[in-house]
Amino acid sequence: xxxxxxxxxxxxxxxxxxxELEGAKRIDAEYYKPEYLKVKQKLLQTNFVxxxxxxxxxxxxxxxxxEYEEEKQDYLFLLAQNVRPLMLDLSEKKYISEEKAKxxxxxxxxxxxxxxxRTGAVGDSTVYTGEPPKVIASAHILIAKPNxxxxxxxxxxxxxxxxxxxxxxxxxxxxLQPEIAPxxxxxxxxxxxxxxxxxxxxKSFLKSQVLLQESxxxxxxxxxxxxxxxxxxxxxxxxxxxxxxxxSDAFSAHRIDAEYFQPAYEEIIEKLxxxxxxxxxxxxxxxxxxxxIEPGSENYRDEGKPFIRVSNLSIHGFVDRDQKYLSExxxxxxxxxxxxxxxxxLITKDATPGIAYVVKEQIEGIISSGILxxxxxxxxxxxxxxALCINSIIGKMQIEKDxxxxxxxxxxxxxVKKLKIPILPLETQQKIASLVQQSHEARRKAKxxxxxxxxxxxxxxxxxxxEAKREVEEAIEEEIK
Length: 481
Hints:
The protein is an alpha+beta fold. Helices cover 39% and strands 19% of the residues.
């Protein structure tokens, strides 16, 4: 007996056999969308095995209290936001002590472990290459322990293809907080190709990880050079538990919350003044500022032009995480005002305020109201240097002081314009900016290699292995030149 599932929004329906419905134990229409059914059917026509035959187990790590620290300790504590498609984003790090780590032996990562985000941005996954060492995963990450009959690097690449991601997203449940279950992932079909192709895909992936590490090292060098030049290399803010503030200062700032008057925030500015570093408010360094737009969730689409929200921006660029899209028609109306251009400085002002990034290339997309678009006066300051200052402790400390809001954090445009920027000689700015640019270039090449690996898997599934091999070989050679 066939059952018919419909989707009001898309006017699409799927006809599914009752036997298939009972096997899946799902009766929601979303699970039976035609594109999901097509993907699974396509994979079942390949030489496949189920994921459960390629892993020893899938671990749902133990939950612990949020007792991790920003101060470096024995073990890196990996949060869900650190897991990106085929990479670890460690721009924000948390740590735990060895004592706490020993309480969670199953959370400890081993080389080759495949990581899946369990809640929230389900669909993002990567593989742990053994670097950095001593990593403990949070409860929001599922850990698949491979049996190494097939390269875990290949498996991770497959799960990041459009086909693999669709399979994972299909299995999510829960309306407010999407979640994926280990048992669902275990029963996903995985296409297995020749050893030769799998080795080529693994090579492309591993080379990308080397470049990502290089990118991270270059960015750290830039940040360290900045702090050295400003005399802040070993600076650590001293947060006080009790302190006094003048009533006149409270009236002047229109703030009465204790956090705003924390002396540690002014300490860094005083340090810069002691070193005779010139400080300029951001408003003197910009030619224009434009807030993004919120077109309303009713205008979100499953495909079209990217709608860039705060969660889609990082200090290293744009992030494809829970990406929303706008129609071509709406994009054409909004693009002149709200589309970022190469050279624009984007700064987040809501939720996670203070993420700064200089746009490197032309993109087709619209920024949300949580992002500001700034045009920089290049005669006054180097753009990459400015972005680094904002992303560093210098910007973070000022933003922590200014920001407000209890549920959603806000940083007002008027406050953004008052942000104090240390001005170093242009020659020094350029030296620092050069390291940042090299970091971004290494990251760009890494992403290219990741895309090559994914495309090779997709070609092997859609067409044939020989064409996929040619694609990988030619592209890798081109990227390594």
